[in-house]
Each structure stands twice: as C-alpha cells, then as structure tokens.
Write a structure and sequence with these properties.
Blueprint: E1 2-7, E2 14-17, E3 20-24, E4 31-34, E5 37-41, E6 48-51, E7 54-58, E8 65-68, E9 71-75, E10 82-85, E11 88-92, E12 99-102, E13 105-109, E14 116-120, H1 133-155
Antiparallel strand pairs: 1-2, 1-14, 2-3, 3-4, 4-5, 5-6, 6-7, 7-8, 8-9, 9-10, 10-11, 11-12, 12-13, 13-14
C-alpha cells in the first residue's frame, strides 16, 4: 500500500501523511496536531513533549530523546543518528543523510531527492491511505526530528 506525503503550497512543510492531517501554529510554524492527536511542547516551545497521551522524554543535559511512551530509542555510536524507535529499526541510504526505512515502511523521495514523497507499506494497512497509529507516530517523529536537525544546521 502506498501512503502519499502531502506538503504545503511552498513545498516546505509536511501537511499530510496519508489521511492524517498535520496543522501548524501560525506564528511559530511548529506542528500542533497530527491527525487526532494534539502535539504539546515544553514551556519555551523548544522540544516536543507529547503526542496525544504519549510522553516523550529526553536526556537530562541534552535535547536528545530517550523514550517515546514505552518505546526506547537507540542511536548510533556517536549518538547523532537514530537507529531504532521502539520495535522499528531505521535504515539510511549509503551516504547516511536520508532515512530509507522505518520498520516495514519504505520511504521514497521526490525527483530532487530532498523530500520524502511516498511511503510504501507491504500488504494492507488500516484503510486506504491510512497507517496504523504506532507506525504513524514513529514515521512522524522520524521526519519531524530530521527536519529539526536540518533547520538547526542551517541556523549555525
């Protein structure tokens, strides 16, 4: 099953993952909902703290996430790339800059290769264009954190 990723008219912000709509705060540009779930940030609006009722915890001194609900997160030896989110392993392309798979999901990029365009899920999902909730949350977090990393690198 193919799940299409939709973007805004400028092509810069992810607006849909299949049938799940993502809405953004007007002034900050941060996502505030993912499908039926509200996204909650810390007081200073810096880190994503919760998706619906699923808490995200971080290390004490850095902004690296350690848990998403009951899921553990594993990073590579240098601690820079996410390797596993709960039961879903992540694989990267040969240069290591783009996520290619999240568990059973295979991510295809647009013609320029910079933006995820379609996600393939073997078999049938919860409905046409719909991902199961756990896969939707995992995919959103991976894409969200990669976008955050790219924006932070641009600011430096």
């Amino acid at each position: 099953m193919d799940i299409e990723l939709g973007y805004d008219s400028w092509g810069s912000r992810l607006r849909t993952i299949g049938t799940a709509e993502i809405t953004y705060r007007k002034w900050t540009g941060r996502p505030v909902t993912l499908g039926p779930w509200e996204l909650v940030y810390e007081k200073m609006n810096t880190r994503l703290r919760r998706i619906g009722t699923t808490e995200i915890t971080y290390t004490k001194w850095t902004s690296r996430p350690t848990h998403v609900g009951a899921w553990d997160l594993d990073f590579d030896k240098l601690g820079s790339r996410l390797r596993r989110i709960g039961p879903y392993t992540l694989d990267y392309d040969t240069l290591g800059s783009r996520v290619r798979t999240v568990g059973p999901l295979h991510i295809d990029y647009d013609k320029l290769g910079s933006r995820p365009h379609v996600v393939h899920l073997p078999g049938e999902g919860a409905g046409p264009g719909t991902l199961p909730d756990d896969l939707l949350i995992a995919l959103f977090l991976v894409l969200y954190w990669r976008t955050e990393e790219q924006e932070n690198a641009r600011r430096r």
